[in-house]
Every structure is written in structure tokens, then in C-alpha cells.
Write a structure and sequence with these properties.
about 190 residues; alpha+beta; 3-stranded antiparallel beta sheet; 6 helices; about 20% strand
């Protein structure tokens, strides 16, 4: 009921403002032009690597923040850090596994038991990096999916957007040529 009352009040305020000049002679100038929720609402958000997409388009961090809210945005940033950490451990695992193979092959070819025994050091490092890689990557991806699913589960049947604007009417005297207003958009 409050939304309907607010909508009616805004419509009435717009009618009063336009009553002073013809609609065709009115120019609306948006004071700020951030991406509005009304232009994005209703799409399906999904994870694409370390980032989120909405209807096939990658979202910037500011867009994600405006869509999912402050608390979920912190979860999104944490998930990105976990995915990055998982990728670092993946690189370490690949490097240490390659070093293990190289040292073991070199020890086997030269029949050097000391070199064969030294191959255990990178093997242990690889054994540590593998579960860390899997853990960080899995948790980061799951948190990123949770942010997208939380956005998708919220009802977005109607969204409202208010943007400050300046209205210019050419038929009014110069002193009253500009008026402050709000641009109101509704997305069903």
C-alpha cells in the first residue's frame, strides 16, 4: 500500500511540474547517470569465472554492488579473493608437481639416490597445494554462486528508481527556466 501511495504522490508531483509548460517543450537533464536498478532488474545473474554476468553481460563491481547490496557485495569480493588464492595454489601445485617429476627423472637417469630422495620435497609441497587449491576454489565458486542465486531468488516483479534531475522549460521566463525534480522509472 505504501508503494502505491508513493507512486501516486510522485505521479501527482510530475503532473504539477508539467502543468507549467508544454511537455514537448520540456527537457529533462539527469544530474547523475549511474546504472539504475530499473534497467537491470528482471535478468538472471550467473557466475562467469571470477565475475558475475547478467543476461550474458559482465557486470562491473559498482554494478554488482548496486544490484546485490552491501552485505552480499562483501561476500562477492571475498569470493573473488578465494578464487584468486585457489588459482595461486593451482599454479604452485603444477610447478611443484613438475619439479617433482623433473628431479625424480634426473635422479633415475643418473642413478643418484640423493637426487631421488630430494624429489620428496617438491612432492610434499605439491601434496599440500592440491587440497588448498581445491578448497579455496570450491568455496570461492560456491560463494559466488550463492550471491547470484540470492539475487535471482528475490522477487523483482516491480522495481523503482529515483534519479535527481533538472528540468528546463523554454516557455517560462529566464528566472524560472530551470526546476529541480526527480526522474521516476518503474520496471515491471
Amino acid at each position: 500500500m505504501k508503494k502505491i501511495f508513493l507512486s501516486m504522490m510522485l505521479v501527482m508531483a510530475s503532473v504539477v511540474m508539467f502543468a507549467q509548460c508544454n511537455f514537448n517543450e520540456t527537457e529533462t537533464i539527469n544530474v547523475s547517470s549511474p546504472m539504475t536498478l530499473s534497467t537491470l532488474a528482471g535478468g538472471q545473474m550467473e557466475r562467469s569465472g571470477m565475475y558475475l554476468m547478467l543476461d550474458g553481460r559482465h557486470l562491473s563491481d559498482s554494478e554488482v554492488k548496486s544490484l546485490v547490496g552491501e552485505a552480499n557485495f562483501e561476500t562477492y569480493l571475498g569470493a573473488q579473493k578465494q578464487i584468486t588464492t585457489g588459482r595461486v595454489f593451482m599454479g604452485l601445485f603444477i610447478g611443484t608437481a613438475a619439479a617433482t617429476v623433473a628431479v625424480a627423472v634426473a635422479g633415475a637417469v643418473t642413478e643418484n639416490t640423493n637426487l631421488l630422495n630430494m624429489s620428496y620435497i617438491p612432492a610434499i609441497a605439491a601434496d599440500v597445494c592440491l587440497p588448498l587449491w581445491i578448497t579455496f576454489s570450491s568455496i570461492g565458486k560456491a560463494r559466488m554462486n550463492w550471491v547470484a542465486n540470492d539475487y535471482n531468488s528475490k522477487g523483482k516483479s516491480v522495481s523503482f528508481n529515483l534519479t535527481p534531475s533538472v528540468m528546463r522549460c523554454n516557455t517560462m521566463p529566464d528566472q524560472a527556466n530551470l526546476g529541480m525534480g526527480m526522474t521516476f522509472s518503474v520496471n515491471f
